[in-house]
Design goal:
By secondary structure, the chain is mainly alpha-helical. It has a single domain, classed as Four Helix Bundle (Hemerythrin (Met), subunit A) (Up-down Bundle), CATH 1.20.120. The chain contains nine helices and six strands, in the order ααββαββαααββααα. The strands form two sheets. A four-stranded antiparallel sheet has the order 1-2-6-5, with no helix packed on it. The longest helix has about 45 residues. The N and C termini lie far apart (about 75 Å). Keywords: Membrane, Transmembrane, Transmembrane helix.
Length: about 325
């Protein structure tokens, strides 16, 4: 995907700096990938009260083959999570495939989680085939849904604690790595959409308002209440497993997990709406598939809760009948 295509949704929205400049794709790349903006003093308080320029360099994009590998990896993560979600919904309790344990096949497992972190850590330079600045949140949603839906499997408490702690650390680092990719992109979008080039340098911009990190158009962040809710839910699982549910009730753990699902579902809906407005059929399809997977997981949890509630109600009625007799 070229930078002309990445910036196309911005054309015609407000005072686009891109339409007023002839620097071409290199200028767009520099602005969208800028990680450090400097504010300069200005004497023109009427037309240029805020004058910014990019004070960072961008080493360049990785080869398109890297993007293709990342796209294939993301597709595998989606399919594996979807397959085990369907199996879990069908109550087959599948723990693996052909002798390979489930934890080694999921994006939140100990084998694939480091690969997810590697992709997100290098995501700023992955812009062909699977641009992480646009599709990275979908990969993080997959990781979060997988971590919530499937518990780590281990024989002893120590092994379980290590696996769960690594998952918590992975979710936290993935959120931070994603922010390092998307926040410069969102800031660059804001700069291109509502700025004018001053002409003093290639990236020098005049603005009527201060430039906010991450922009104001997109509210999504990797490290947000969603990530914190998932971390709390995973920690509650670990406490219940190691110390027993007398230290932390099952209701508290279930409530934290439910809150995590609510936040993940809300992020999925928001991102689908965002990409639908910004345009791009591939992005809309990717986020719609991930949102469908998230809601399938939510449906599975609600279905199991209602089934458990019905069982408990039947047991309660049966106990009442026995006591009456």
């Amino acid at each position: 995907m070229s930078y002309d295509q990445m910036i196309a949704p911005l054309l015609g929205a407000g005072r686009s700096a891109w339409t007023a400049h002839d620097g071409g794709e290199a200028v767009v790349r520099q602005i969208l990938k800028c990680t450090r903006w400097q504010l300069e003093e200005t004497t023109d308080f009427v037309t240029c009260p805020y004058h910014y320029y990019c004070d960072s360099s961008y080493p360049g994009d990785y080869h398109a083959a890297v993007g293709a590998l990342v796209a294939a990896f993301a597709a595998y993560c989606f399919l594996s999570t979807l397959a085990f979600t369907v199996l879990d919904l069908a109550r087959s309790n599948a723990t693996g495939v052909r002798g390979i344990k489930r934890k080694y096949l999921l994006p939140s497992g100990p084998f694939l989680l480091p690969l997810v972190l590697l992709v997100l850590a290098k995501g700023q330079r992955i812009n062909a085939v699977f641009p992480l600045a646009q599709l990275g949140p979908a990969l993080l949603l997959l990781l979060q849904a997988s971590a919530l839906a499937f518990r780590n499997e281990a024989d002893g408490d120590i092994r379980y604690a290590v696996l769960e702690a690594s998952t918590v650390s992975g979710v936290l680092h993935a959120s931070l790595y994603l922010d390092a990719v998307v926040l410069p992109y969102y800031t660059g979008q804001e700069a291109l959409r509502w700025s004018q080039f001053s002409g003093e340098c290639a990236s020098c911009l005049c603005r009527m308002e201060p430039l906010v990190v991450g922009g104001t158009a997109v509210r999504y962040r990797g490290l947000s209440k969603t990530a914190l809710a998932i971390i709390f839910a995973l920690c509650s699982r670990m406490v219940c497993r190691i110390y027993g549910e007398e230290r932390l009730s099952a209701w508290t753990r279930s409530a934290l997990e439910a809150a995590g699902w609510v936040f993940v579902a809300a992020d999925a809906v928001y991102l689908v709406g965002w990409v639908a407005v910004e345009g791009g059929a591939v992005s809309v399809l990717a986020y719609s598939l991930v949102a469908g997977l998230v809601f399938l997981g939510v449906f599975g949890k609600v279905y199991r809760f209602l089934a458990w509630l019905e069982t408990r109600q039947s047991q309660w009625k049966s106990s009442l009948c026995h006591s009456a007799v």
